[in-house]
Recover the amino acids of this structure.
């Protein structure tokens, strides 16, 4: 998954919404900038149990819309999406979530993947 495009510290937004956490977010931002990469390797893994049940795992916290889309597009009657398996890459917000802005979208140790999960969805067959 690609890393965040042009990360920026949302200092004014953080100061307004989480004033006591501003120093924490500044530190997290600068620490993540030191370790950021152009992309991060991880895998979605699926397992089928019987004819009508599947489990899809991933090392992220997908926003609900993405998880529900995986379930909707699954060919199985029942599909469970399990998160933060085999690693932890942080939040994967939907494009709409980035428009609204919240701590899950602020670049840092908890959110450093691409702002464009919907663009990836066409290739990977899930949407945001």
């Amino acid at each position: 998954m690609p890393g965040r495009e042009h990360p920026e510290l949302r200092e004014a937004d953080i100061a307004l919404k989480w004033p006591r956490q501003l120093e924490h977010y500044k530190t997290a931002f600068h620490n993540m900038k030191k370790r950021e990469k152009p992309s991060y390797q991880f895998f979605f893994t699926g397992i089928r149990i019987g004819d009508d049940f599947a489990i899809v795992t991933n090392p992220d916290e997908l926003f609900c819309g993405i998880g529900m889309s995986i379930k909707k597009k699954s060919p199985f009657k029942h599909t469970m999406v399990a998160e933060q398996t085999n690693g932890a890459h942080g939040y994967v917000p939907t494009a709409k979530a980035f428009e609204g802005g919240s701590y899950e979208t602020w670049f840092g140790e908890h959110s450093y993947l691409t702002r464009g999960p919907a663009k990836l969805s066409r290739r990977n067959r899930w949407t945001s």
